[in-house]
């Protein structure tokens, strides 16, 4: 291994460019971006021109990157349905892999990825960058200080009132495996499980709705095409854990509610609770801690509103801020040989829950029981 980690990026669409390239470019003391791969060669070449090392190249076949012995690390930023295939091929070829969320479409594929990483001894992490948001880091500290006590009930909120993405392949079930649940729901579930530090699922029930796909009016980004809209518009799940705790999951791109509440959690513990809601304007999240003090019910907020993404008012975009922290932690884990900030095992449980909500819904809401 050379001094710097040599990285190949597969998939140079929205997240590949806006988070991974921008994030890694903040750590060029420790890495070089060497291979740029996308079905669309123009995308790969554009990225290489802007971010590539002197010996970098662009290509359309991911196998070229995976088979390149000079590459240490692969970032998989392709559509959900091929995360498992590309990740496993890269791990088998001896690369460390950071794969975008969701880790995979099915629990079976996610488990295969965990097993492959273990067997090959390579590191595997998943792009749940919301853990690096200001408010998430704050809440994590509050939990670590024991201020909520034992968190035994939680909610993962991933609700947009009308926020169907009309670009990319988000509404294409064949490429993504699902809609708002697999897209937004995973982030919120990841956060809730991480705060609870609870990854032993007992069972899951779910409901998935296809009610508003033909009603594209009122959408934030403009109307979607009902002809190509093939995913659910909302989904709900209820997860019980082996220690008796529970998690309610709600995810939508279109739901007739008053407020959107995306990437938010409600945590209820024996010593106190916490919740996050979206501020009425802008993208800040308001964190509230709820407990009893001096015999009275008390709500407290940090004095400085925790910016949704980064430090309030700084010039960085959210993905630039979170992507820089995510990439830094990932490179540290490889270079220091420590556990990644988001472990493959944790992300696998998120995918198992998502998959179980879809499977339960397909079976009329019957519970999916975990071993
Ligand atoms: N972490 C986040 O917050 C976040 C945000 C958006 C998207 N994502 C995830 O990132 C992934 C990509 O989403 P996106 O919005 O960037 O999609 P996108 O369509 O904008 O980009 C995906 C790119 O991958 C390329 N591609 C697909 N399969 C390929 C293959 N086998 N070989 C080479 N190139 C291939 C496509 O040509 C496309 O350019 C998805 O899994 C999505 O869930 C994560």
UniProtKB/TrEMBL annotation:
User: Which Pfam family name is an example for this entry?
Assistant: GFO_IDH_MocA
PANTHER family linked:
D-GLUCOSIDE 3-DEHYDROGENASE, UDP-N-ACETYL-2-AMINO-2-DEOXY-D-GLUCURONATE OXIDASE
Q: Where is the Gfo/Idh/MocA-like oxidoreductase N-terminal domain?
A: 5-128
GO MF: nucleotide binding
Domain GFO/IDH/MocA-like oxidoreductase, first and last residues per copy: 138-273
**Taxon lineage:** Bacteria, Bacillati, Actinomycetota, Actinomycetes, Actinomycetales
Protein name, entry field: Gfo/Idh/MocA family oxidoreductase
Q: Which SUPFAM superfamilies match?
A: Glyceraldehyde-3-phosphate dehydrogenase-like, C-terminal domain, NAD(P)-binding Rossmann-fold domains
Domain of life according to the entry: Bacteria
Q: InterPro entries, per this entry?
A: Gfo/Idh/MocA-like_OxRdtase_N (IPR000683), Gfo/Idh/MocA_Oxidoreductase (IPR052515), GFO_IDH_MocA-like_dom (IPR055170), NAD(P)-bd_dom_sf (IPR036291)
């Amino acid at each position: 291994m050379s001094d710097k980690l040599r990285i190949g990026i597969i998939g140079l669409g929205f997240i590949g460019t806006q988070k991974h390239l921008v994030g890694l470019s903040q750590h060029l003391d420790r890495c070089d971006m060497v291979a740029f791969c996308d079905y669309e060669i123009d995308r790969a070449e554009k990225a290489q021109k802007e971010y590539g090392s002197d010996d970098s190249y662009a290509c359309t076949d991911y196998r070229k990157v995976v088979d390149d012995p000079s590459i240490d690390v692969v970032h998989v930023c392709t559509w959900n349905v091929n995360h498992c295939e590309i990740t496993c091929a890269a791990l088998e070829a001896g690369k460390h892999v950071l794969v975008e969320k969701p880790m995979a479409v099915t629990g079976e594929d996610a488990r295969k990825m965990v097993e492959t990483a273990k067997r090959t001894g390579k590191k595997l992490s998943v792009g749940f960058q919301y853990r690096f948001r200001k408010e998430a880091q704050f809440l994590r500290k509050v939990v670590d200080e024991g201020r909520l006590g034992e968190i035994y009930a939680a909610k993962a909120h991933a609700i947009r009132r009308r926020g169907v993405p009309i670009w990319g392949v988000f509404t294409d079930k064949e490429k993504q495996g699902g809609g708002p649940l697999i897209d937004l729901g995973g982030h919120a579930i990841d956060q809730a499980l991480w705060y609870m530090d609870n990854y032993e699922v007992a069972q899951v029930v779910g409901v998935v709705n296809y009610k508003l796909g033909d009603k594209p009016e009122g959408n934030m980004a403009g109307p979607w095409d009902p002809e190509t809209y093939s995913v659910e518009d909302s989904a709900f799940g209820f997860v019980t854990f082996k220690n008796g705790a529970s998690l309610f999951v709600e995810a939508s791109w279109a739901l007739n509610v008053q407020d959107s509440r995306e990437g938010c959690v409600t945590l209820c513990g024996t010593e106190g609770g916490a919740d996050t809601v979206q501020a009425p304007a802008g993208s800040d999240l308001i964190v509230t801690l709820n407990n009893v003090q001096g015999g009275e019910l008390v709500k407290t907020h940090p004095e400085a509103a925790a910016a949704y993404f980064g430090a309030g008012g700084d010039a960085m975009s959210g993905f630039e801020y979170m992507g820089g922290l995510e990439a830094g932690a990932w490179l540290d884990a490889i270079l220091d040989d420590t556990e990644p900030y988001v472990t493959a095992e944790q992300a696998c449980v998120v995918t198992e829950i998502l998959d179980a909500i879809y499977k339960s819904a397909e079976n009329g809401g019957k519970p999916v029981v975990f071993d």
